[in-house]
Specification:
The protein is mainly alpha-helical. Helix content is about 60%, strand content about 10%. The N and C termini lie close together (about 10 Å).
Length: about 180
């Protein structure tokens, strides 16, 4: 399993260590270091959203939430999870995550209920208020990226889109909720 921090939280992928080693080896054999691609990707995202990132930051600040709480909201967008699965994904201890979830329940951002198949386990899911906040954050980030992408020529934007589609076609899909 591969764990990737995408800047919004940690995402898990089904991917053997052998596959990852091969991917890195292939890049290096072509004279392309993965670290160089990372630098390009980070710089690209930075430039795309340079003028509009403040709106998403303002929403995060106004929410009064901590970064782990915001990450938890994003993790729960894919569906309900047990506290232990949330802890694994945001890289906090189960005890710290349990306290975090309790605070978020009190704020009305998440809901906790019994697991449908195992009543001893509690499932945590987004409340309407939590879903609304994550939607506002996503729309603000997308608006910022859209402004940056609009500055590209149609030819470059089309090429960029094809490249991203190729990249997504080669990357493993994130692990589903029950797998972690």
């Amino acid at each position: 399993m591969l764990m990737v921090d995408n800047g919004l939280g940690v995402t898990y992928y089904h991917c053997s260590k052998y596959t990852m080693v091969n991917m890195v080896s292939n890049l290096r054999a072509q004279g392309i270091e993965p670290e160089d691609v990372c630098r390009l990707l980070i710089e690209t995202i930075h430039r795309l959203q340079a003028t509009e990132v403040s709106k998403a930051l303002r929403i995060m600040h106004e929410s009064g939430l901590t970064l782990p709480q915001i990450l938890t909201l994003h993790v729960l967008e894919s569906g309900p999870l047990a506290v232990g699965a949330i802890a694994t994904r945001i890289q906090l201890s189960p005890a710290a995550t349990s306290h975090l979830v309790e605070r978020m329940v009190c704020l009305g951002l998440v809901e906790r209920c019994e697991h449908a198949e195992d009543r001893r386990q509690k499932q945590v899911s987004l409340s309407r208020r939590g879903a609304s906040l994550t939607d506002r954050l996503r729309r603000a980030r997308m608006a910022g990226l859209s402004v940056g992408l609009a500055r590209l020529s149609p030819r470059t934007r089309a090429s960029f889109s094809r490249s991203l589609s190729d990249v997504l076609g080669e990357l493993p899909r994130p692990v589903s909720e029950g797998s972690v």
